[in-house]
């Protein structure tokens, strides 16, 4: 008996002739590459019986086609590894998120939920792509597109360092530590200057993947990326993020953890939204005790634990603020226990020095108490389109002694209870 069916494998379509044999099922597949029309590849693809039985789907990836290379990150969930995967006849670098063996049931459910969300998202160039998964046996694994050049937060901090080196004004700059009381925005300088040319440097990329946003302790340098302090590039970054979020809005999927640390950069400077561990389909009310990114959250999410695409719009404006401050830490002076009170009293992040009034007014609109006043991501894409020739950030007006707002050197700080009065400034918060 022979059955023909079309199934999708990564970026290829295959016409599979499924044949029954005493020792199982095999499929002799003919791959037609969408990248090279007319070129036909022939390879042998083993289809597990579990797929045909409905226990899993075509995202299930054979473990024997994955070669684990090295650990590049760790978290409470398990590990992130650099790996090589045999995909349609050739080996490709991938990032593998591996859940620890025998995890608590809730942890495994969250891991599988993230896989399910990524399946629903499908392909978009500004979102990290799910290639496959291994869920039939432990340890469960998620096979992701490998994005080699780190995250946007680190890129912005590197630009900040370039500014300091160029202007030689490091004397009054200090890193915002977990116990400091740094200012949100420094005083406005009196005399602007003009930069004669774009400031750039070529630096190497490091392997990076994101689940719980682990950082790599082992640097494997494969590519080089030029880091440019230029308003056009930063505006392009903002537009790319908006396009990725517009795709989620159409599905609709709520991200819930949009921040510069969760946006990865490819060697071609294509930005890709990552870390969908908190994401949900459609509007969502969170009734579980979870660690949450308080300083990026919309006011209704803090008050009522309610999330939708408009709460993601709020978070997006915080990302715009991160871009305009080259990676500063939001609400540096405000303790976690006072954040809700601060927002309820109409207070918002101050205008960054390089931010035009037009962009800051857009941020304020995104931070509106009334969700209906906030723009959609589709509208944000139109507003941020570089073809519109608007300038949203302008380095030419900076005084040579200007100091960017402080950063946080405790980005991975401990979790705290919402009701607890604290002096530290952790990124995540637990609601009870």
Automatic annotation (TrEMBL):
Keywords recorded for this protein, A-Z: ATP-binding, Kinase, Nucleotide-binding, Transferase, Tyrosine-protein kinase
Binding site for ATP: 97
Endpoints of the signal sequence: none
Membrane topology note: Single-pass membrane protein
Any Gene Ontology biological process: cell surface receptor protein tyrosine kinase signaling pathway
Claim: Magnesium is one of the keywords in the record: no
An MF annotation (GO) of this entry: transmembrane receptor protein tyrosine kinase activity
Ranges of residues in domain Protein kinase: 66-393
Recorded catalytic activity of this chain's protein: L-tyrosyl-[protein] + ATP = O-phospho-L-tyrosyl-[protein] + ADP + H(+)
Subcellular location: Membrane
Assigned GO CC terms: plasma membrane; receptor complex
Xref: InterPro entries: Kinase-like_dom_sf, Prot_kinase_dom, Protein_kinase_ATP_BS, RTK, Ser-Thr/Tyr_kinase_cat_dom, Tyr_kinase_AS, Tyr_kinase_cat_dom
PANTHER family per record: PROTEIN KINASE DOMAIN-CONTAINING PROTEIN (PTHR24416:SF594), TYROSINE-PROTEIN KINASE RECEPTOR (PTHR24416)
Name of this chain's protein: Protein tyrosine and serine/threonine kinase
Species of provenance: Popillia japonica (Japanese beetle)
């Amino acid at each position: 008996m022979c059955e023909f069916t079309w199934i999708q494998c990564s970026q290829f379509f295959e016409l599979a002739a499924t044949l029954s044999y005493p020792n199982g099922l095999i499929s002799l597949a003919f791959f037609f590459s969408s990248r090279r029309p007319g070129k036909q590849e022939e390879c042998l693809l083993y289809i597990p019986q579990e797929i045909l039985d409905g226990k899993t789907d075509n995202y299930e990836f054979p473990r024997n086609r994955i070669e684990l290379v090295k650990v590049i990150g760790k978290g409470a969930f398990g590990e992130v590894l650099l790996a090589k995967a045999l995909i349609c006849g050739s080996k490709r670098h991938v990032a593998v998120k591996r859940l620890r063996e025998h995890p608590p049931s809730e942890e495994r459910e969250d891991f599988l939920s993230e896989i399910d969300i990524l399946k629903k998202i499908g392909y978009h160039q500004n979102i990290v792509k799910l290639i496959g998964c291994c869920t039939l046996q432990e340890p469960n694994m998620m096979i992701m597109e490998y994005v080699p050049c780190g995250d946007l937060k680190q890129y912005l901090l590197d630009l900040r360092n370039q500014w300091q080196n160029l202007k030689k004004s490091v004397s009054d700059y200090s890193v915002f530590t977990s116990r400091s009381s740094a200012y949100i925005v420094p005083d406005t300088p009196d005399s602007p200057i003009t930069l004669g040319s774009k400031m750039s440097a070529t630096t190497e990329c490091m392997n990076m993947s994101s689940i719980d946003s682990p950082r790599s302790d082992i640097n494997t340098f494969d590519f080089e990326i030029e880091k440019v302090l230029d308003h056009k590039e930063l505006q392009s970054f903002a537009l790319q993020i908006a396009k990725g979020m517009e795709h989620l809005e159409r599905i609709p999927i709520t991200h819930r953890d949009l921040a510069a640390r969760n946006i990865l950069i490819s060697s071609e400077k294509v930005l890709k939204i990552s870390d969908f561990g908190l994401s949900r389909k459609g509007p969502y009310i969170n009734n579980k005790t979870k660690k949450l990114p308080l300083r990026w959250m919309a006011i209704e999410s803090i008050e009522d634990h309610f999330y939708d695409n408009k709460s993601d719009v709020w978070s997006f404006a915080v990302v715009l603020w991160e871009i305009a401050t080259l990676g500063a830490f939001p609400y540096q002076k405000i303790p976690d226990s006072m954040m809700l009170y601060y927002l309820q009293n109409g207070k918002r992040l101050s205008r960054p020095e390089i931010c035009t009034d037009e962009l800051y007014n857009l941020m304020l609109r995104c931070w509106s108490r009334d969700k209906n006043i906030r723009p959609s991501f589709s509208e944000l894409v139109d507003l941020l389109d570089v073809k519109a020739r608007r300038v949203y950030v302008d380095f030419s007006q900076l005084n040579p002694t200007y100091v960017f707002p402080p950063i946080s050197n405790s980005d991975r700080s401990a979790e705290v209870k919402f009701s607890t009065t604290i002096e530290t400034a952790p990124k995540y918060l637990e609601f009870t």
